[in-house]
Amino acid sequence: MSAVSGQMSSAVMSSKVAVVTGANKGIGFSIVKGLCQRFEGVVYLTSRDEARGRAAVAELNKLGLKPEYHQLDVVDRLSVARFADHLRRRHGGIDLLVNNAAIANSVHLYNSYEENQEIVQINYKSILLMHELIFPLVRDGGRILNISSDCGHLSNVRNKYWIDRLSSEDLTMKDINEFVEWFLDSCKNETFKREDIADEGTVAAYRVAKVALSAATVLQQKELEGRNISVNSLHPGLVRTDMTLGVGFYSADEAAQTPLYLLLEAPTTLKGAYIWYDRRVLDWYDYKADYYFKTSTLKA
Q: For this structure, is 206 an active site residue?
């Protein structure tokens, strides 16, 4: 290796690195935009669909911003492993990770078993793959932000057995995974009871997936505490995006401000928290609270 190429390789390896999943549109796109403007390092815009991802990069290029692009399908082990290998070889590790990739079915308040499977797969089970393959690349002192939802607060669960189990001090990933499988099995067997989930069981799969994600955040923080990595989950607010069919009380750029604060400015002591869009840290365990998602807001 020549001295010049060696210096270039060293510079790439020493750069700080941020990764945002599901970033070709919506709040993910706006977070990438904000990081390109404020983060001193390499910013990766990733997406499942490469054409859409590269089109998003082109949009940011028009603003003078230059994110890197890499294809990433968060539910495809091969795709996640390929990206992890790329990050390892090119940068050695990453500093910021935003788990933003998500889908919702806002057209129907009740979904088929197959639709529920897909919603849970992308909104929750993807985090298990990211945890296994990407989390080990996060450097000491790094920050991980899981984009949750008001659907992710424990008050969305009304089944007392699962409230107690999810709020246990001895919570494990096995508990969380069994909660998710309990829901999917009840859909498959047509034994799902709407009263087990808030708001008459509407958008139940999205609620279950996001509650599971918020619960997993607590365990991820415990696991990574020794490396001074912060892991938080965030309800970004009802944002006007394709996923909400354009309903919402603010734009994706406005909604990106709290995620950017958590990634770049929040105190290092803020860890394992469930955070509201206005930066308030809420008690995730307060299952009697009025924080659960109400489908009536979609009619605004």
A: yes
- In the chain, the amino acid numbered 175 is D
pLDDT digit string, tens, across residues 57-111: 999 999 999 999 999 999 999 999 999 999 999 999 999 999 998 886 656 788 9
Catalytic residue among 44, 69, 206, 287: 206
- Report pLDDT digits (tens) over 265-281: 999 999 999 999 999 99
Q: Give the integer Cα–Cα distance in Å for 54 and 141.
A: 30
**Could you tell me the pTM of the whole model?**
0.93
